[in-house]
Amino acid sequence: QVMGKSEVTVTIQRDQMEKTVDVVTASLPIAGTSQFVYFSGLYIQPIFPHVAFSNFMPAEAENGGIFIVRKMKGSPADVSKIPNNVWITHVNDNPVKDLDAFLEVIQVLKNDEDTRIKIITKQGVSKAFTLKTDFWYFGTRLLERKIGTVEWSSQDISEFPK
To answer: What was the pLDDT predicted at 126?
Structure first.
């Protein structure tokens, strides 16, 4: 929500005609990236403003949602053909509207477990992919920038396989 409103009505001009449309609001960070998660070769972070303001924003991406910005070659995500520059909306059928919800779902995953990732592209197309976790080589890590500094902290989320 922005200023207590989850939706606003705006008037736009298209094709020399005025149109009134309802727009879903989202609170977006303005200080750049302050946290991201590395999971199975995916670099995932909350949406950043230039993407939010220049592209389609899916309804499932409440407050911007979480976005895959990059993937590592040879990783489980790469093998599964999960694309970059897409929103993650679900993991194993659990909705993930933000990084905290994503972390909650992936913390219980086991090594070598099939994991279903549902995404939405910038064109609004939903797709699902299955990857097999590999915590030995592609563990899960949360990186966070300390507020007001340039220092980052790192926390391992997945345990090494036994």
So the answer is: 94
